[in-house]
Amino acid sequence: MTWTVVAKKDFRDAIQSRALWALVSVFVLLSVLSSYAYVEVPQLFGEPAGATFGGLVFFTVGLTSLFVPLAAIVVCYKSLAGERELGSIKLLLSLPTTRLHVYAGKTIGRAAVLAFGLGVGLLVGLGFGAVLLGTVAVVPIVLFLVATLGFAAAYASIMVGLSATTGSTTRATTLALGFFVVFELFWDVVPVAILYVVNGFALPTSMPDWIFPVMQVSPSSAYFSTVVTLLPDLAGSVGAGGQAGIGVSPTEVEPFYVTPEIGVVVLVLWPLVGFLVGYMRFETADF
């Protein structure tokens, strides 16, 4: 049994799950409602000059930055911990396969499930917003989807990796929620707190350059910078570039690690790190 067979079975099982369709329905609803709210009342979302397609894209980034981590936890936390807790992992590994194929199949299968739900929701939501605005930009939508599906793949790899470290779904849930709290809710505070302590319990008048790459460690921050990198014109039109470190004079030469491109590097590294760490623990686990 190869990893493709494991991935297809995982995806097929998920497609038959009511939980997946509930997840897709919730995201489609949220996506449509957020698009409607942004287009109809743009002043509430910092667009006094009126709604634009670029503004809609970056407004949607905020929704996906929160939805993807939470959806990944729901879809992935039991992927391997659940199999170990039920004992079905022994049956799976008794087939002509390897732990690497099982692990890779689980990761890719769960990433495909997440990408499916996310892709449907984004296409419906952005399509609805484009109809309301009376304009559509195909290339930005495609680039935005590429960045967002990369973000989803990163989170699927991280959550499957965490699930592989334990044989208890309770501990897997704790690890997944802990990762979300640390890296999505409090990570922006961490480098500032370090700087505050290092600077003698006072904030400096200007932030040092190392703050920016440290803040990019959060997957959602890296995702935002990736969208800015792929869509610099749209980011500039809505003032989102400055948040990702590109609000500098054209004559200034900034080091690479303070440009939004560093977010692309971080977003590529997260799934690799999640996969390698999780597989190393899964390979040496005693079932």
Which key features would you list for this structure?
287 residues; mainly alpha
Question: How would you describe this protein?
Answer:
By secondary structure, this protein is mainly alpha-helical. The protein has 13 helices and no strands. It has helices spanning 3-15, 18-40, 53-76, 81-86, 88-94, 99-133, 138-164, 169-185, 189-198, 211-215, 219-230, 232-237, 261-284. α2 (18-40) packs antiparallel against α3 (53-76) and α7 runs antiparallel to α11. It is globular. The two termini are 19 Å apart. The model is unreliable at 245-251 (pLDDT under 50).
Quick overview of this protein structure:
The protein is mostly helical and 287 residues long.
Could you give the topology of this structure?
Blueprint: H1 3-15, H2 18-40, H3 53-76, H4 81-86, H5 88-94, H6 99-133, H7 138-164, H8 169-185, H9 189-198, H10 211-215, H11 219-230, H12 232-237, H13 261-284
Helix pairs in contact: 1-6, 2-3, 2-6, 3-6, 3-7, 3-8, 3-11, 6-7, 6-13, 7-8, 7-11, 7-13, 11-13
Which regions have little confidence, pLDDT < 50, spanning 5+ residues? 245-251
Q: Kindly, what is the distance between the CA atoms of the first and last residues, rounded to a whole number of angstroms?
A: 19 Å
Number of helices: 13
Shape: globular
Mean pLDDT: 87
- The class by helix and strand makeup works out as mainly alpha
Strand-and-helix sequence, N→C? HHHHHHHHHHHHH
Residues in helix, %: over 70%
Tell me the Rg in angstroms.
20 Å
Measured by DSSP, the beta-strand proportion falls in under 5%
Number of strands: 0
Major β-sheet profile: none
